[in-house]
Amino acid sequence: MLNCDLLIVGFFTDWDYLNCLIEHCLTRVSPSKIFVVDPASSADLLEKAPALAEAGARATTVFAHVRETGDSFLTKLRLQFSKSYVRQVLSPGLKAYREQFDADADPSLMNLDEIDNPSLWQLRRNIEGALPNQPAQRHEPIEAPVLGFIIIRLLAAGATWDGPLLKLEDRFIRVIGASGKFVHDLEKSYSGSVPPGASPDVTIAVGAAQNFLPPDIARSSETENIVRPASGQFCTDRDFEEVLEIA
């Protein structure tokens, strides 16, 4: 743990265990930063955890006590992490938009304040290309300027965020990372993954290949039913503008 950052959350009801752990693990190391999340006062914190206070004195950069409950702190941490993650994808999209159209996109298109925590998590899953029932796993997004460009392109064309989806006029659009995958396989994977009526109208599979093999399921053009809801239309980054009729 030399020169690492240490975050301690939610141990304020079990200080005996925490003190023992710190004494055994942090006696001879100097973390770079230590953040302790505990609603107690700093004086109470130092009294309850003297070993932690000693470790904090050895922190090479920061020793901070955040007076907040663990639930509240972690909710804010997840929110800021997800926003940072998505912005890292959108930022190259702004540059690609400028190169494509010789004009700057509105920087406000990077604003994610209207998207809540669960939707941001779902958006991260879509960017990663996680299949239904798979969690978001990456700490940093892969380099995906095309995916970022498509989202910026849709927003610049008038789309707005609706949870993890984009809404353009009367159609809901999902953008997913799908490099190296076939569209018909994605159609099979996503079929029936959401309740009837909740499927996006269009899914843009960025990096996927069309091989025109029909999935061994009911086609998305069929009427929805309880057994097999429609999964919407799938397209790729090469034909999304035509499908969505974006000039």
Q: Which range best describes the helical content: under 10%, 10-25%, 25-40%, 40-55%, 55-70% or over 70%?
A: 25-40%
* Neighbour order of strands in the largest sheet: 4-5-6-7-8
The number of helical elements comes to 8
Q: In this structure, how is the largest beta sheet organized?
A: 5 strands, mixed
Calculate Rg over CA atoms.
23 Å
Strand percentage lies at 15-25%
- Say how many strands there are: 8
Chain-averaged pLDDT = 84
Domain count, please report it: 2
How would you sum up the global shape?
elongated
Distance between the termini: 54 Å
Give the helix/strand class. Answer: alpha/beta
Low-pLDDT ranges: 217-229
Helix-strand string: EHEHHEHHHEEEHEEH
Description:
By secondary structure, this protein is of the alpha/beta class. It folds into 2 domains: about 5-70, no CATH class; about 95-245, no CATH class. Helices cover about 40% and strands about 15% of the residues. It is built from 8 helices and 8 strands. The strands form 2 sheets. It has a 5-stranded mixed sheet, sandwiched between helices. Helix 1 links the parallel strand 1 and strand 2. Helix 4 (about 70-100) crosses helix 6 (about 145-155).
